[in-house]
Write a structure and sequence with these properties.
mainly beta; six-stranded parallel beta barrel; globular; 43% strand
């Protein structure tokens, strides 16, 4: 059947949507390996270059491989709807070849039915490639898997911004409380959000709420998974979702998404264990590498190593949160670079550690990180958004009142051309029976942190009393201005700061550091370096 485009008026690509000159060859280092037997999709009737949607023929090759184990070879260019991959299968998209998602949303949204038909179980949501309850699965080959993301979202309100912002400004606290946070003209928050392409009617403009899949590649409840030497391109939503999986290796991966298609996270790890992410290049519109553990998993997430990755995103480069109900622990992130080479404003944050829905986030080490044009280098937040709507107890106890963030170490962090101060905050509140509730960030150590601010103007409006950030969706640019230019810490216990170097803008009037309700703090060397000056 010829491809039917659900939303034919969409799909336009603008200058700045994709990162130019992405160094793909530095990350795709091997064509990968094929294991016998090999099932060539062309032997099942698939025709390279055909405008037809060839789901049945491609799925037939995958089903045959699922019976024996082996390799499904994609050599050429093929359009398909949702496909299901089974145990002991290598999907090998050969270098120069492309497996492309249909622009007909019904070919993709109906993937839960397809999963049930092929595997006797329901999928959690629509995706292009689905793997569930499988062992020993690999995606490799050096080729490209493409989602055609711009065909499932509305055009942006403004074209991508390629020129610098002259004056950095956040919404004021009054504007935030009045619900104007996303519409304040001139704020860096609005500058990037006006350029995002949403599937929903985000601003009440009478637009249709569009259908689209939940992910391009969704791998759920699997063990022994390898993703390597493959290009994931132009996702329509989350790009690679590893969901409650064990023993996962992701390496030599390139993600090249449209940087303005909403919700196109790069790699999402949800409730996973024993995962290594190494030597990956990620360019996307939402969180680059994101760790979650929501209420569905029912288990602890642990032993995650992320190393030698480059992330380019308009949102958060590395993030823990949101969707944080069950524990996340034993995470190491090291030797990574987070940067924004061409768009303005820069990335929303570089390192973001959040617990919003009751999760205990513990034993996190992040070190040797280099950032360039990341607005907020470090953002650590504990609040009680309570996504699961757990009833609040009268005495302020239980997960509905928030989880914990403890034993976090940030070491050797260098950020150039930042826009906003680093933020660390827990919260205080009052329970129904009048009991004071205090949730502090615990045992946070920051050492060898250097932040140099972008040379430009700034408009700062610090309120007399900075409100508690209790139930809001956490983003570093959603707080408004605070009373420090370098590092703001509120509600923290056992804080250690050593060798903190801040180079603010020349017009700065705020202190480098502000501590509020911080107990047992050790503040070592803190230096104000020479401010950036325009050449």
């Amino acid at each position: 059947m010829k491809e039917i485009v659900t939303y034919p008026e969409l799909g336009k690509v603008l200058e700045g949507d994709f990162t130019p000159d992405l160094p793909v060859d530095e990350y795709i280092v091997s064509p990968g390996e094929m294991r016998e037997p090999v099932y060539d999709v062309r032997d099942f009737g698939a025709v390279s270059g055909s405008p037809e949607v060839q789901t049945d023929k491609l799925q037939a090759a995958l089903d045959a491989c699922g019976e024996t184990g082996g390799t499904v070879l994609v050599r050429g260019s093929f359009i398909s709807g949702s496909l299901v991959i089974q145990s002991h299968t290598t999907l090998y998209v050969e270098s120069g070849s492309t497996l492309t998602a249909s622009r007909n949303v019904d070919d993709l949204i109906d993937s839960s039915r397809l999963m049930q038909m092929h595997m006797g179980t329901e999928s959690s949501g629509g995706a292009f490639l689905l793997v569930k309850d499988a062992l020993d699965v690999r995606l490799t080959g050096g080729g490209r898997i493409s989602g055609q993301g711009a065909w499932f979202v509305h055009p942006p309100r403004k074209v991508p911004r390629l020129d610098p912002i002259e004056t950095v400004m956040l919404p004021s606290q009054e504007e935030i409380l009045e619900g104007k946070i996303n519409t304040v003209q001139g704020s860096i928050r609005t500058e990037y959000r006006d350029r995002i392409r949403y599937a929903e009617d985000k601003y009440g403009e009478g637009l249709e709420n569009l259908k689209r899949p939940s992910a391009m590649v969704w791998i759920q409840n699997c063990r022994d998974v390898t993703i390597d030497n493959i290009i994931l391109h132009d996702s329509m939503c989350w790009t690679l979702h590893m969901d409650a999986c064990d023993s996962v290796r992701i390496r030599n991966l390139v993600i090249d998404d449209n940087r303005h298609v909403a919700n196109t996270d790069g790699i999402d790890l949800t409730g996973c264990r024993d995962v290594t992410v190494k030597h990956c290049l990620i360019s996307c519109a939402d969180d680059g590498i994101c760790l979650k553990n929501d209420a569905r998993t029912g288990r602890e997430m642990r032993n995650i190593v992320i190393r030698d990755c480059r992330v380019i995103t308009v949102m958060n480069a590395f993030k823990i949160g949101t969707g944080t109900r069950f524990p996340i622990c034993k995470v190491l992130v090291e030797d990574c670079s987070f940067d924004m080479p061409d768009l303005y404003p820069g990335s929303v944050s570089g390192i973001s550690v959040e617990s919003c829905d009751g999760s205990e986030v513990e034993d996190i080490v992040i070190r040797r990180i280099r950032m360039h044009r990341v607005s907020c280098p470090v953002y650590v937040l504990l609040n009680r958004r309570n996504q699961g709507k757990i009833p609040l107890t009268e005495d302020g106890t239980g997960l509905s009142w928030g989880g914990a963030i403890r034993r976090i170490r940030l070491e050797d962090i260098r950020a150039e051309d930042a826009d906003l101060p680093c933020l660390v905050t827990g919260f205080t509140d009052t329970a129904g029976d009048g009991t004071p509730v205090r949730r502090a960030v615990e045992d946070l150590k920051i050492s060898d942190l250097s932040v140099r601010f972008r040379p430009c103007g700034e408009k700062v409006r610090v309120p007399e009393e900075i409100r508690e950030f209790l139930t809001d969706y956490p983003e570093s640019n959603a707080h408004g201005d605070v009373d420090a230019c370098g590092l703001y810490v509120r509600h923290a216990d056992r804080l250690s700061l050593e060798n903190i170097r801040i180079a603010p803008r020349p017009m700065n009037t705020r202190p480098l550091l502000a501590l509020h309700d911080v107990k047992d703090a050790m503040v070592g060397t803190m230096v104000e370096e020479t401010a950036h000056v325009e050449a």
